[in-house]
Amino acid sequence: MEADWPLIAVRFALYVTLSGLFGLSAFGLYGLKVGERGNALAFRPWLFGTGLLALLFSGIAVALLAAAMAGAPPWPIDREAVGMLLSTPQRARHGKYA
Fold first, then answer.
1. Cα–Cα distance for residue pair 45/49, rounded to 1 Å
2. 34, 57, 90, 91: which is deepest, by most CB within 10 A?
3. Which value, in Å, is the radius of gyration of the alpha carbons in the chain?
4. What is the C-alpha separation between 75 and 81, in angstroms, rounded?
5. Contact 47, 24 (CB under 8 A)
6. Which residues contact 63 (CB under 8 A, 6 or more apart)?
7. Contact 68, 7 (CB under 8 A)
8. Cβ distance 4 to 64 under 8 Å?
9. One digit per residue, pLDDT tens: the chain, 98 residues?
10. What single DSSP character describes residue 28?
11. Of 18, 3, 7, 5, nearest in space to 61 by CA
């Protein structure tokens, strides 16, 4: 079985980005004393940039996952496969799909 290295790399980058976003925001709240929390405003550009980077990686990951599930190449993006991946399935009724 051939590994899908671009999807693995994007998922790893997404984990690192979201971990950094969580860690930086938690440090601003819990790592600084009450008087030092005014300095946490310097973290805002980093938090904003990391959040945008996470959104970018999430979109790329969805497109690569849809391509892998459909067995299609990643480019051009198959909009139908992405739509099926993002659509809501029917709700389960009594443990079975209706």
1. 6
2. 57
3. 19
4. 12
5. yes
6. 74, 77, 82
7. yes
8. yes
9. 466 899 999 999 999 999 999 999 888 888 888 877 777 777 889 999 999 999 999 999 988 988 888 887 878 887 888 887 778 666 555 555 54
10. I
11. 7
